[in-house]
Amino acid sequence: MNSRRVVITGLAPVTPIGVGVTDFWNALLEGKSGIRRLQFFDPARFESQIGGEIDSLKVAAYVPKSYRKAGKIMARDIVLAVAAAHQAVTDAGLHTKCIVERGEADEVNLDSTRFGANIGAGLICADLPELAEALHSGTENGVFSMAKWGAEGMHNLTPLWLLKFLPNMLACHVTIVHDAEGPSNTITCGEASSHLAIGEAFRTITRGVADVCICGGAESKTNHMALIRQILGKRLSTNNDNPEQACRPFGEKRDGTVVSEGGGLVILEELQHARTRGARVYAELIGFGAGNDAYDPAQPSKPHPDGRGLVLAAKKALKDANISADAIDMVSAFACGLVERDAIEAKALNTILGKRVGEVSTVAIKGGLGNNGAGSGALDIIAAVLAMYHATIPPAINSEPVDPDFGLKLVTKGSVDANVNVALCNAYALGGGQNASLIVKRYRE
Fold first, then answer.
1. Can you give the pTM of this predicted structure?
2. Which whole number is the average pLDDT over 250-277?
């Protein structure tokens, strides 16, 4: 057991079903779906034409007036993170530099030198119209020319163009805006990024080099390039006529996942620091573990059929928390609706929980959200923490009928009351073999 206890004092989901804790939680309880035919661009030429999009998200609403010009060099992923960061510190009652400059508080109430940040990011896709125009000017007789690109094409990109698409820019902007001068890092491990980022923040606080960390992840996959990558990887459902029912986590009729955008950031805080400022505590984070199950050099994105990486991550997290699997009474699963991946995750859960697997409630929220990439894990964790805090488990929409081979206990017909004490939160990357687990506990003095 770690000597410095770490608690969760702020939650900030930014999703297609709701932005902010209240809207997100209510949408989960209602079984709301945010999946629709893509509207930010015309998807008619794509095999999969559906996804989760967030309307009316403007960076100006989340930064000081003096920082608004920086929005010109923020890709969509960065905007998602900046929006989540403002809501996270606000939800936690932290008065950062940004909050003070926006006139939402009189003075800063934390030591910025002990305020860290760990944010998961994905492969940020270039803005296609902007890039296409530059590439066109680098062609000769319809053929791309390196010589013409160097002489003309690249000059049609703005000088700061690259700064919009570097994965570390999510954490960069968040730390600048909120004056987080403590340890900062970026994790780029696909869908496992948020869990790994939160785990690293947890370690940062337990070893005493920070008192507060903002952590999680964000990504947008609702653009031309991200969509075609997922299609080529054969990961997407093509149920274009019924977008709200396309993603079916752990469902017997599942046929793929759905692209989405969003993510979330959470505030981790050393317990005494939180007590001193009278913060509200959602839950306590007590364990973290990671594992890898890439085993085939010819297919590095292929997971081990027994889910051994996820099992290893969970075992490490349990050991870190100094508890046994018997203490777990809820699981927050990744469950993205992929036929093989859901089956492997279910097999791993059976290994971790043993005979209790059918007794432990499993939360699966991607039926209404789709795959948010590097931001998806943060949303799973936020959902688990809220379920614990409100003693209510939200329904897994589109999962009925649940695959009978899995032996899992999913709530599918409306939310149910449940007194959750310990939750296991799992995530895995769809490529690379990364797996991570976090263990959250109901907070008690």
1. 0.96
2. 97
